[in-house]
Recover the amino acids of this structure.
């Protein structure tokens, strides 16, 4: 569903347009808002963006897990506690809260990256660094996915 990478500006109020292809897909799913949360990547800070209905699916799956499991508790503390709903405005923009912009180090430019079922939001320079690291490890990635076929 979500694929590709797009660079967009972020205005002084923290608003950014969602790429049109992403926005159209989100709206076609019956959503008028998204959920932003801190990505669980200690090396490359960025945000995960879910169409609201996908976030609800995630919450249902999470609620089926044992509530006293330490990993479930940590996931809730790190991922759910930092989740915010963001309404799409009439121009297709979202307001990225200051705490989330600070976490992902997003200032005047952001890179939106399609990740099939979700979208990632990156500081453009950090995205490029993560891409460079991934390209340097491409042979390891290919070896690790040797059994993956379409």
């Amino acid at each position: 569903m979500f694929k590709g990478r797009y660079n967009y500006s972020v205005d002084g109020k923290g608003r950014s347009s969602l790429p049109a292809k992403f926005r159209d897909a989100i709206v076609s799913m019956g959503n008028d808002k998204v959920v932003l949360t801190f990505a669980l990547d200690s090396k490359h800070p960025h945000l995960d963006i879910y169409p609201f209905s996908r976030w609800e699916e995630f919450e249902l799956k999470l609620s089926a897990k044992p509530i006293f499991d330490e990993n479930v508790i940590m996931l809730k503390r790190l991922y759910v506690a930092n989740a915010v709903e963001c309404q799409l405005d009439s121009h297709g923009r979202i307001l990225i809260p200051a705490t989330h912009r600070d976490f992902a180090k997003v200032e005047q430019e952001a890179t939106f990256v399609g990740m099939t079922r979700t979208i990632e939001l990156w500081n453009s320079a950090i995205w490029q660094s993560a891409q460079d690291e991934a390209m340097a490890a491409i042979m390891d990635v290919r070896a690790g996915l040797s059994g993956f076929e379409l």
Remarks:
- Residues 5-144 form a domain with the Chemotaxis protein chec fold (CATH 3.40.1550.20).
- The two ends are 16 Å apart (CA to CA).
- Helices lie at 20-28, 52-63, 70-80, 98-104, 124-136, 138-144.
- The chain has one domain: 5-144.
